[in-house]
Amino acid sequence: MESSNLKSIVKQKYAEVANTGTSCCGADCSYIDEVKFTEDSYQEVDGYLPEADLGLGCGLPTELAQIKSGDVVVDLGSGAGNDCFVARSQTGPDGKIIGIDFTPEMIEKARKNASKQGFENIQFIEADIENIPLSDHTADVVISNCVMNLVPDKKAAFAETYRLLKPGGHFSISDVVIKGHLPKQIKKSAEMYAGCVSGAVSMEDYLKILEDAGFDNVQIQKQKKISIPLEILQPFLNAYEIDSYNQGDLGIYSITVYGEKPNSCCESDCCKED
Fold first, then answer.
1. Less Cβ around it within 10 Å: N or C end of the chain?
2. Contact between residue 89 and residue 68 where contact means Cβ atoms under 8 Å apart
3. Is residue 95 part of a domain?
4. Helix ranges (DSSP H) in the chain
5. What's the burial of 179, exposed, middle or buried (CB within 10 Å: 0-12/13-18/19+)?
6. Cα–Cα distance measured from residue 41 to residue 271, given in angstroms and rounded to the nearest whole number
7. Residues 136-161 pLDDT 10s
8. Residue 37 gets which letter from DSSP?
9. Is residue 49 part of a domain?
10. Could you tell me the residue range of the domain that residue 23 belongs to?
């Protein structure tokens, strides 16, 4: 399937989520309460806004992002604004939060949520995270929550992440990756793709993309194997593959990964004056 078609599917599914408030982005929502992409909870987190939480995350990147007062934070795939509002509680009124999302319905929902709270230092921009309309060296911190796995061109998205960060800046991103060989049936399923599974790449490939993008000190801050109900696996895996999935390292994992843009990067243009 071409990347343009995959993007259309994802956009359609997430528009449905924004309009209905239902945290199901796959074709079959009957197992949504059984598939746990994360055990993390926002309930007790400062800045949490329940109406902005559509249950689409696979981690809590703001917990590990080392956001400081006055920081400029960019959230890639910001949805209804959940992580932006949490980040805003960490930067305070002197910071700036910029949410990027390519689904118009999500942008509208996020802007309404920000307006209701009277937040003036949060901005939401409708854009593709493979081509972000922000200046170089904009952000102190980049965050993202279960979005990069849905992006067809991950190299472009992480190159944009690198470009946006100031020298010495860093990212903390929660995402979905694969360990071992996941059968092609799942990877090629458009429904599972929109449901945050087959868009994922292997852990090794994911980390290699980050290193190739130029990031230093890349490390996994948190990881958890995702439990998938038998009824979901059966259409795609045979009995042996299901047993291998349940018993071994093979599987789908939620991770939170960290990386830094080098302070000294004069081999590129990042040492030029902004």
1. C
2. no
3. yes
4. 3-20, 61-64, 82-91, 104-117, 154-164, 184-187, 190-194, 203-213, 230-233, 239-247
5. middle
6. 39
7. 999 999 999 999 988 989 999 999 99
8. S
9. yes
10. 3-237+252-260
Q: What is the C-alpha separation between 32 and 53, in angstroms, rounded? A: 15
183 domain-assigned: yes
Which residues face 223 on adjacent strands? 255
Residue in this structure with the two tokens 């959230």, named with its chain if needed = 75
- Sorted by sequence, the CB contacts under 8 Å of residue 239 that are 6+ apart come out as none
Tokens 């408030």, residue located = 21
Look up the CATH number of the domain holding residue 113: 3.40.50.150
pLDDT per residue as tens digits for the range 105-116:
999 999 999 999
pLDDT at 191 over 80: no
Q: What is the tally of structural domains in the chain?
A: 1
pTM: 0.86
The 165-179 sheet, strands edge to edge: 122-126, 96-101, 72-76, 139-145, 165-179, 251-260, 216-225
